[in-house]
Amino acid sequence: MRISPLRPLVVAASLIFGLVAVQAQTRVVPESRAQVQLSFAPIVRQTTGAVVNVYATRSERRQNAAMEEFFRRYFGDGGPSVPPGRSQSSLGSGVIIDPSGLVITNNHVIENMNDVKVALADRREFEADIVLRDSRTDLAVLRIKNPSNLETIELGDSEALQVGDLVLAIGNPFGVGQTVTQGIVSALARTQVGISDYQFFIQTDAAINPGNSGGALIDMSGRLVGINTAIYSRSGGNVGIGFAIPSSMVRVVLNSAKGGSRNVVRPWLGARLQPVDGEIATTLGLERPTGVLVTSIYDKGPASEAGLKRGDAILAVDGQPVDSPDAFGYRFTLKGTQGQTPLTVLRGGKRTDIMVKLMPPPEIPPREPVRIRSRSPLAGATLVNMSPAVAEELQIDISDDGVIVADVEERGVAASLGFQKGDQIVAINGERLASTRDAQREIDRAGGYWEITISRGGRVFTTVVGR
Residue of 78, 187, 292, 345 with fewest CB within 10 Å of its CB? Predict the structure, then answer.
């Protein structure tokens, strides 16, 4: 079995089941042959103009002369090398959700790409800028350059969906051309799918296949309730299990883009969580495994200020039950970064509501980024100071201080030697690092020998480069 990210075009559409004026919340089983013969065509016509093809390309550069010289000096002519430059391309789809030209699509459609074009259903083509990429939700926002006369789709309420509701998926499976499929919502709040950090998906049996990435899942009122993003398949083809990112999360990403941010702004709890299994549930006095257990708390964060304690079980966010850290992350993110929200907590056998402040993770201390350009094993890496904001962004455990690899040039020396985004550089040549200034100083005076201690995923190891 495998979970496959979808590829290219998907179009948005919905249907009117019965009269056009039927509301989304009206759910009626067909009572006659005439009702069964009703068509989805009116909503398909209404929405296809707002779904676009997304073409993305990228030209890769050959390795630079500085890297070649580094490898020749320290590894000889037989050392590692970088393949010659080549072009990459990607094809997907997107949905226009704002007259200003904002388009929502999957991040994996444009991942690592830099040139993007959007083709409309009426054959017009526009260049587009990448406004925001978010790998954690697998969503991205584009902006069409010089837009005119654009059709849009209204965002619906994915929270109102129920299992059994009819939905439509429209796209370009396997590149055969625009295709409309119909099905039902077969499950909600699917987690453990392995697609993104915020695993909370709408599952549908509407046939979606590779080629549908970034397209729309539409409810019975012609509104966007999800962005199709993955399929569950043995062969890569449709087996009746597809996943869509709920429109509630799409709205969060869009709000960040409209606010001028290039990153999604999320609320920060300042605590580590783990699932509640059967054994823990019994210990807590719960009838069944539910909620999430607080395992540690950052002493300067919202959880600490609200009075949360290690061993508390969080059962709900603003009345919405949570059954896993993924579900908690989804529900908490939807609350935004302003005001407060209640968490239902079980402590000592009693349930209580605790108000937690909604705020983004602070960038204290400041990042003070340093791009390593000198001839060293870390050449091509960008180092930053540890902070709650950095830890949240890179999804790593927060420590009081330290130096973190925030970015690695794909063809740089650091990448070729195995350094990864999120690595903590603990020490260089035996000198512990508390800031990026410490790191730059130790790199500059290392000479031709580097002993670098790294912390990654709870493991600490040392790599040695040079004579």
Answer: 78
